[in-house]
Amino acid sequence: MTLPPLAFLGAGSMGGAILHGVVASGLSVGIAVTNRTPAKAAALAELPGVTSYALEADPTVNQDAAASADIVVVGVKPAMVPDLLREIAPSLRPGTIVVSIAAGVTIATFEEILGAGIPVLRSMPNTPALVGRAVTGLAAGTSATAADIAVVREMFETVGTVIEVPESQIDALSTISGSGPAYVFLLMEELTKAAVGKGFAEPEARAMVEQTFIGAAYLLESTGEDPAELRRRVTSPKGTTERAIAVLQDAHLDDVFVEATDAALARARELAAGA
User: Fold this and answer.
1) 246-267 pLDDT, tens per residue?
2) Are the beta carbons of 102 and 170 closer than 8 angstroms?
3) Do residues 123 and 190 share a domain?
């Protein structure tokens, strides 16, 4: 599949990661990207197939970029989304697909402002998009067709895995894959501290922990085994790992993760309600 002409309205860390993934895939026939400053625009201008614009140089570039594209990716901050949609709505051709990567802004908001004839999809990528290993949740709006979903899915697959969900599950997905990298980094931080406490220098502690996490993830991916099965293989009966796992289980780690993700979900709903 070759991707149709794209426009990225705002290419911060997440939008920029997706943009770079699309460029690297070689699937795009042309991309227009807008940012506020000439410096940010210049940083993207040398990417092959990318035309980069700065709002400070020309305030109409969002409209121009949207008019040139078959898929428009909205990557501005959530509070800026309604004004941006009102700005570009007159420039969109019927059938132009609009994709949101703005957290907390509902499909209903997009559809209400953009009107009939504009398919909308809402996405929730995570930060490993920066290295092409994202998990992206994708929810379709009321007028998005199977073909619309397929082409947007193809775009996001340039930076990782895509999971299609109803919009009602997007916030829940954000508590797992969206926030998940932070949970992993926290575990790495704490295990590194434990290693330092056992007499290892910081560089040694970091190397042990980081490479253990990377190696374990690669082993999981390479074998396709269930994580519980891989854990059992490491946990010899009456051995040291079994004793450590017992401490973690006695701390009710399962309940901690449920409570943590529930707290994240409550906050996601607050943000969606404007709190």
Assistant:
1) 999 999 999 999 999 999 999 9
2) no
3) no
Q: Which residues of 114-131 are buried (b: 16+ CB within 10 A; e: fewer)?
A: beeebbbbbbbbbbbbbe
Q: What is the CATH number of the domain that holds 88?
A: 3.40.50.720
Torsion of CA 76, 81, 86, 92, to 10 degrees: 50
Residue 240 lies in a domain: yes
pLDDT tens, position by position, 216-239? 999 999 999 999 999 999 999 999
Sorted by sequence, the CB contacts under 8 Å of residue 212 that are 6+ apart come out as none
Residue 274 reports pLDDT greater than 80: no
User: How is residue 92 annotated by DSSP?
Assistant: P
Q: What is the pTM of this model?
A: 0.92
Q: Which of 171, 198, 226 is the last residue of a domain?
A: 171
Residue numbers of the domain that contains 234: 180-272
